[in-house]
Design a protein that fits this description.
- This protein has 14 helices and ten strands.
- Helix 1 crosses helix 11 and helix 1 packs parallel to helix 12.
- The chain is α/β, with parallel strands linked by helices.
């Protein structure tokens, strides 16, 4: 039997370890909080408006193109810009939508990746074709199913090129009702906070392809996607991995620069979406994988461990109960001071209010999806 003093020390040590991990990750977001305050208070006075090529890779996206493409084409950008839609093996009426819109918009262009029954060329082929077709060196990316929140989206993103050659933007999930919607919004925002904070710390590790920008020279310097072209996804985060050491990375988090997409409508769709997205994390750098694993595990464990430790020490009339309770309060205050204003900036205060159970449920859901993929090794449609 384990001596009581040893058991007490072990339980407290485990709780302290998880607490420290959570606290350090929350403090990791301070740079983002400072950036948000700067964005909110400083006037937006761009010096130049570089010519921009907006690239949209689309596979059978007729309805989304019809709805969202005019919002991109009608951006109030004070410089020159073109919009190139890459029709990737489309079998619907996407091309007809483009041709109709070309009658109204001179700056709309398109190119095509034709079907080949022998193999799937993945989204990377479409992006590569779009980069080659781009008339300008400054490339901004958005997905066909994404809706810019403002007519200033392009200007906010593009003017960052005066300082940086890789710009990470925010691609959120549209608000709706129910648990599924809340989980997806939390997952998207929380991951965004992590990679924005890491980028501000000089260690970018991922982006979302539905709202990012980079210079064509950077693309060529990295050799395009040649290091991971055999993988069906990774055109965004693995590209960031490849250029992280020499890119001048910035973030664009003004509310005008946000884009939103519709979340998955069923838990099954969300489940397999997470399988596709997390499958590529295997190729992250070792330090990043350790960081993300520690974050997910500590998020899942903190509240159950807090309750267990407090009750264990309380019923054993141990002073450690007060220490555990105090540290739980410290963690909550740190979230209130740092994460709450960040979530408020992204108009997601409801996520903060539900954070106690979302930070347990969502990592568990993601972990199950990863385990499922590992066991079944079932191929999924990875065109992201």
């Amino acid at each position: 039997m384990i001596p009581v003093d040893v058991l007490n020390a072990c339980i407290l040590a485990v709780f302290l370890l998880v607490f420290l991990v959570r606290l350090l990750i929350i403090l990791h977001s301070i740079r983002l909080l400072v950036k948000i305050k700067y964005v909110r208070t400083e006037p937006f006075v761009p010096d130049t408006f570089p010519p921009v090529s907006v690239l949209i890779a689309a596979r059978n996206e007729r309805d989304n193109l019809q709805k969202n493409l005019p919002l991109v084409l009608e951006q109030a950008y004070r410089g020159e810009f073109e919009v190139i839609v890459i029709l990737d093996s489309c079998v619907d009426d996407s091309k007809r939508v483009i041709l109709d819109l070309q009658n109204r918009y001179d700056h709309l262009k398109y190119t095509e990746v034709f079907q080949d029954k022998r193999f799937d060329k993945y989204k990377k082929m479409a992006i590569l074709l779009g980069v080659k077709a781009a008339a300008y060196d400054h490339l901004v990316f958005i997905d066909a199913d994404c809706e810019p929140v403002s007519e200033k989206w392009l200007e906010r993103m593009a003017t960052k090129f005066t300082e940086k050659n890789l710009i990470l933007g925010y691609g959120g999930m549209k608000k709706g009702r129910g648990l599924l919607n809340l989980m997806q919004r939390y997952d998207t925002l929380y991951n965004s906070v992590l990679y924005f904070s890491s980028a501000l710390a000089g260690k970018p590790y991922m982006a979302v392809g539905r709202n990012m920008a980079y210079h064509k020279e950077l693309f060529h310097k990295a050799g395009g996607f040649k290091k991971h072209y055999h993988l069906p996804s990774g055109n965004d985060d693995l590209f960031v991995r490849d250029v992280a050491d020499f890119a001048e990375t910035g973030i664009c988090i003004h509310p005008d620069s946000f884009v939103f997409t519709a979340p998955a409508q069923t838990f099954k769709d969300f489940f397999f979406k997470k399988i596709r997205h997390t499958s590529i994390s295997y190729y992250y750098q070792t330090g990043v994988k350790i960081f993300l694993a520690a974050d997910a595990l500590s998020r899942f464990l903190f509240v159950p461990l807090l309750l267990f430790s407090y009750l264990f020490f309380y019923f054993n009339d141990n002073l450690f109960a007060k220490i555990v309770l105090l540290l739980g309060l410290v963690k909550f205050l740190a979230e209130l001071l740092i994460l709450h204003p960040i979530y408020k900036h992204f108009d997601e205060e409801r996520i903060f209010r539900n954070g106690i159970w979302l930070e347990m449920l969502t990592p568990a859901f993601v972990a199950v999806s990863m385990l499922y993929a590992k066991v079944r090794k079932k191929e999924q449609n990875n065109w992201l």
